[in-house]
């Protein structure tokens, strides 16, 4: 998992995000041909919805009261996707499983456990299907469904 180790360096993540933004900006400029399309400038896709162009990133936040900002996260299937876990409050991590480990699901990858504020990443490449995520510190109340499609 050398890629995972490398990619968790915050500076690399920052560069990755900037690079993705440039790609999106370039793609938008390509539409500037007088056609009827209205540019959606400034409309940053909400994390966890349809993956951005390139489909390689997603984001989830840990919020006060030991909650994730979403109970469902959708990513692109069959490609490396870097999921950024933005811990804004408390002590948490982000762990991806094949399914709920309470039912025998196996760990795919996870971040370290961090005290907020902290940003860490997990990179996964998953076949289409439903998976499970949770925080290991709060495994019964911080859970969600990861959908690869
Ligand atoms: Cu937690």
Summarize the structure.
18% of the residues lie in helices and 34% in strands. The protein has 149 residues and is an alpha+beta fold. A hairpin with a 3-residue loop joins strand 1 and strand 2.
Radius of gyration: 16 Å
Number of helices: 2
Shape designation: globular
Instruction: Name the CATH superfamily classification.
Output: Cupredoxins -  blue copper proteins
Alpha-carbon distance between the termini? 23 Å
Looking at the structure, the CATH topology is: Immunoglobulin-like
**Spans of at least 5 consecutive residues with low confidence:** 1-53
Strand content range: 25-35%
Q: Which quaternary structure do these chains form?
A: single chain
Number of DSSP E strands: 11
Give the SSE string: HHEEEEEEEEEEE
Structural class, judged by helices and strands? alpha+beta
Reported CATH architecture: Sandwich
Name the strands of the widest sheet in spatial order: 3-11-10-6-7
User: Which cofactors or ions or other ligands sit in this model?
Assistant: copper (II) ion
The profile of the biggest β sheet is:
5 strands, mixed
Molecular structure report:
The strands form three sheets. The protein has a five-stranded mixed beta sheet with strand order 3-11-10-6-7, with no helix packed on it. Helix content is 18%, strand content 34%. It starts with a helix and ends with a strand. A hairpin with a 3-residue loop joins strand 1 (57-63) and strand 2 (67-68). The longest helix has 21 residues, at 10-30. The chain has 149 residues and is an alpha+beta fold. It has helices at 2-7, 10-30; strands at 57-63, 67-68, 72-75, 81-87, 91-92, 95-97, 107-110, 114-115, 118-124, 129-134, 143-148. It has a single domain, classed as Cupredoxins -  blue copper proteins (Immunoglobulin-like, Sandwich), CATH 2.60.40.420. Residues 66, 92, 135, 137-138, 142 line the site of copper (II) ion.
